[in-house]
Design a protein that fits this description.
This protein is an alpha+beta fold. The protein has two domains: 13-201, BirA Bifunctional Protein, domain 2 (2-Layer Sandwich); 209-253, SH3 type barrels, CATH 2.30.30. Helix content is 24%, strand content 30%. The protein has five helices and twelve strands. The chain has helices spanning 22-29, 79-95, 158-162, 168-189, 193-201, and strands at residues 13-16, 38-41, 63-69, 101-103, 107-110, 113-125, 128-138, 209-214, 217-226, 232-236, 241-244, 250-253. The strands form two sheets. The chain has a seven-stranded mixed sheet, with helices on both faces. It has a five-stranded antiparallel sheet with strand order 11-10-9-8-12. Helix 2 (79-95) crosses helix 4. It is globular. Adenosine-5'-diphosphate is lined by residues 49-51, 53-56, 106-107, 114, 117, 137, 139, 151, 155, 250. Residues 49-51, 53-56, 106-107, 114, 117, 137, 139, 151, 155, 250 line the site of adenosine-5'-diphosphate.
Amino acid sequence: EEYLDTDFIGRNIYYFNSINSTNRKAKEIAFGEKEGTVLVAEQQEEGKGRLGRHWISPKGKGIWMSIILKPKVDPMKVAKITLLGAAAVYKALSNMNIKSQIKWPNDVLIDGKKICGILTEMSAELNMINYVIMGIGINVNLDESDIPEELKDKATSIKIIEDKEIDRKELFTNILNEFEKIYKDFIDRDSISEAIDICKANSALIGKDIRIIRGDEVRVGKALDINEEGHLVVEFDGGIVENIYSGEISIRGL
Ligand code: ADP
């Protein structure tokens, strides 16, 4: 069993049987809510990935959640929060003896297939953050029949891999506990080094040839590292090395 061991993350939780999307609802209520408020739903009717893509969220089978954050940091630093979330999910799974890999910047994989996606959205004015919404979707107990044919080569669930039902509440609590520790390092000490170490040591990309897709532009390179800023370091043709910001890009294997 696992108990919530946090000061503020998940101390206020809204639970929904069904909702359009936890991120959307979180954006509606964020102004009036305390930092660390969590929304979690059994089902999302219109779950969202990045760039408005659909995120399948079948009833009772996953963890479909959003965390409302109000970090007093430069809005430029918000992209880092996605990595903090990925590191927390990795650690929570690891606590339950489930080994995963982090696919920079926003996915967690098992056996090379996506079991978790993170969608971080921000509202800011000038140099002030109003709020950040970190949405985390985890395919916990989805069966093969829950995964559409066209996603079968890139998505799976923990249950499918482990061949047993996983305790969603235990995983949920673990994620909140691990996230608070990592997030406190970020806001109190301006340190993301532990999360970066986790993302590097368990990276699905480092050492691999990848395609970086930004709109219509596709570039091929080799992922070398994740730097201390949380950027992906990529070597392109001719030995040119560049730091890639997460932004609106997608990364695929070759
Ligand atoms: P990517 O990281 O691949 O660029 P996103 O983070 O935007 O993609 O996530 C949306 C995409 O993930 C969808 O277009 C679909 O291919 C895939 N997808 C949708 N629902 C799920 C799910 N529950 N689990 C894994 N992958 C999913």
